[in-house]
């Protein structure tokens, strides 16, 4: 009978401080929900309901888009289509992880304070894994088309226009170094993001929302060659389609808006209590991140269409794409395990103090 009762909602004054969200005053699910009650709460008016749906529904939108891309590319690709699709599979893993674990975190975080922390550790890890998956897609589909990374082209271009500004040989060394370090950097950035976000939660940092948002600028630095290409060669950018450029700009516009809302806590900061159920910052954050990823998917599709005859350079293989992601997932889950142990000890110490 207890399982069938409709779980009640409480005010912020009735919640443990660890489970409070700034400027949200009502619609809380008090810790102690069962898994079944958490599932039912997805259809109640809580302050987490739209947080769940704004990433659960996009998961299926993205799955449908990936399925369409896989079928389309298999039909159009020339040569070994399977090898050319490995980077897309790695990217798909990252995107599916971020929406799946975000949905799970927001739905089941009311089971207990320890489960709440664990849910969000996995959420942070999933976002970090997504960043690495996107980097793999950039490396194989986008970077080969960039003039700023074309050593032969840039060597001539620099000699003609600005030999004193940048040594063509130095540029060649930089490109070779970036090519060699691109994936190791993506892996390292992902690990740093996971550790930083989990630490901000474990230590209850004052500026935790800013830390969790700004730390994800690290993987975005790997897209700087695209930005440089657009800035240097715009508007005469024949090697990049207008659709790709528009999607790239929109992608970062949505990311900027997502970061702005997540850090500022607008609009609930201005009117605490007015946006508890609908319209608070985290819902906007979810919406903007979905739009950013959707535009990124269209951007990757544009980049893939430029290489139907085959990808330049060494063909991607399972180990360097999906295998890379599996290794990163294992490393991320090991980090989460360590933090979960610290969380458990803290909870045990709290129980003894009582």
Automatic annotation (TrEMBL):
List the InterPro entries: AdipoR/HlyIII-related
Membrane topology summary: Multi-pass membrane protein
Q: Does the keyword Cytoplasm apply?
A: no
**Keywords of this protein's UniProt record, alphabetized?**
Membrane, Metal-binding, Receptor, Transmembrane, Transmembrane helix, Zinc
- Any one GO CC term of the record: membrane
Q: Does the keyword Transmembrane helix apply?
A: yes
**Which top-level group of life is the source organism from?**
Eukaryota
Question: Residues that bind Zn(2+), according to the entry?
Answer: 106, 282, 286
Q: Name one Pfam family in it.
A: HlyIII
Q: Where in the cell is it found?
A: Membrane
Q: Mention one GO molecular function.
A: metal ion binding
Bilayer-crossing regions: 50-70, 85-108, 120-141, 181-202, 214-234, 240-263, 284-300, 320-339
Query: Which family does the similarity line name?
Result: Belongs to the ADIPOR family.
Task: Output this protein's name.
Answer: Membrane progestin receptor epsilon
Q: What species was this sequence derived from?
A: Petromyzon marinus (Sea lamprey)
* Protein's gene: PAQR9
């Amino acid at each position: 009978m207890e399982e069938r009762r409709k779980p009640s909602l409480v005010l912020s004054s009735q919640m443990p401080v660890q489970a409070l969200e700034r400027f949200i005053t009502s619609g809380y699910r008090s810790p102690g929900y069962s898994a079944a009650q958490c599932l039912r709460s997805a259809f109640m008016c809580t302050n987490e309901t739209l947080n769940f749906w704004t990433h659960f529904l996009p998961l299926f939108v993205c799955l449908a888009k990936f399925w369409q891309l896989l079928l389309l590319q298999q039909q159009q690709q020339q040569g070994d289509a399977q090898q050319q699709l490995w980077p897309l599979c790695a990217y798909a893993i990252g995107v599916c992880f971020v929406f799946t674990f975000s949905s799970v975190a927001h739905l089941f975080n009311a089971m207990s304070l320890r489960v709440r922390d664990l849910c969000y550790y996995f959420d942070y890890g999933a976002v970090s894994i997504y960043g690495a998956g996107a980097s793999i897609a950039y490396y194989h589909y986008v970077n080969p088309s960039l003039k700023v990374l074309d050593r032969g082209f840039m060597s001539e271009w620099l000699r003609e226009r600005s030999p004193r500004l940048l040594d063509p040989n130095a540029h060649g060394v930089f490109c070779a170094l970036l090519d060699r370090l691109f994936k190791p950097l993506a892996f390292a950035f992902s690990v740093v993001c996971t550790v930083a976000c989990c630490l901000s939660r474990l230590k209850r940092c004052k500026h935790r929302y800013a830390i969790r948002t700004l730390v994800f600028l690290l993987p975005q630095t790997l897209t700087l060659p695209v930005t440089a290409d657009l800035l240097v060669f715009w508007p005469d950018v024949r090697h990049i389609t207008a659709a790709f450029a528009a999607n790239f700009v929109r992608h970062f516009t949505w990311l900027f808006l997502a970061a702005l809302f997540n850090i500022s806590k607008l609009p609930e900061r201005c009117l605490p209590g007015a946006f508890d159920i609908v319209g608070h910052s985290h819902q906007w954050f979810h919406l903007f991140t979905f739009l950013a990823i959707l535009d990124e998917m269209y951007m990757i599709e544009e980049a893939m269409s430029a290489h139907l005859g085959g990808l330049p350079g060494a063909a991607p293989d399972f180990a360097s794409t999906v295998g890379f992601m599996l290794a990163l997932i294992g490393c991320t889950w090991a980090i989460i395990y360590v933090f979960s142990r610290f969380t458990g000890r803290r909870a045990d110490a709290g129980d003894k103090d009582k």
